């Protein structure tokens, strides 16, 4: 055991000597490994960070939540011209399903509309995402109210001009966002009373976060624009009870809405039942493809890096031929010589990998600070990067190490003179 520890120490010494005496050559040889490890770990860390953020954003949502609307979240075989003929879901349909559908925990009617400017005295926040909805939305979307409250059923049904501000909107409108409750802001040319402010969410993987959003009673918009305005796209959000058979649940939604709309038996559904779990599966598929793309891109750099390590080891063997001969003449066995050069190749490769990991760590720190997005370099990715660098060194150094171990001691000493 002590012999191999001494061997590892000598190999490390030889690797450091190669770095000191042949800086440019060693740097160029390690560059491929550094870039390769940087590429793959950067991609994996980015995908892991995004995946973690997506799961955090969706953590308050039931994955079985249904978005019933005229559009599909994912790819569909229905041609675009036919989809464009689908009617929007209506408030009457929402009320009908709310009364007749079984297995429902909560159901809300939501409107997607354009961004607006919001004013308070001389302060303006631009491009705010307005979400007109019913009071049940709070229990479906998992909105976290930091101050005040969400609007109640009475305010929702009557379309009372009350508003819940996103954290960022409140900060943009008021010098002290803690005093936002009870203030009057202007939206759509009318005054709204602020009754709530959401907790800070930060960066969102799904466009604007709730920090840049406001929530108002949906019936206010219905009264202002009607239901057939091109400015709005309605959706019915349905949160089923726990343990519900989703296929049977979707089948009941389909049957009831087809019956309500009078869709013929021979005609296809003129609506889409989008289940959030299907959307998350789609996101997981995208992340998997990104990981594969990262491995392919990094693979070429690692291949070049492997050739660089092999090259520097062949040169090292040639430079130390005389030393190898002396070691073997003093009794060093073939495996001792083999491990000496193999350890050296691994150490050099791991050094290149560590440099690549340090680059990822630096970028992660900058991105986290600048973009308010937690870019995480996990322990698993650090171990993977280091292990991958060591494996590249092992593969690249095996042939030079074998050639060194098989040298004849007499010939090695003679050729080194």
TrEMBL record:
Entry superkingdom: Bacteria
Bilayer topology annotation: Multi-pass membrane protein
UniProt key word Isomerase: no
Predominant subcellular localization, coarse grouping: membrane
MacB-like periplasmic core domain ranges (all copies): 26-255
UniProt GO molecular function: transmembrane transporter activity
Annotated TM spans: 26-47, 292-315, 336-362, 382-404
Swiss-Prot/TrEMBL keywords: Cell membrane, Membrane, Transmembrane, Transmembrane helix
Protein name: ABC transporter permease
Organism: Flavobacterium orientale
Taxonomic path: Bacteria, Pseudomonadati, Bacteroidota, Flavobacteriia, Flavobacteriales
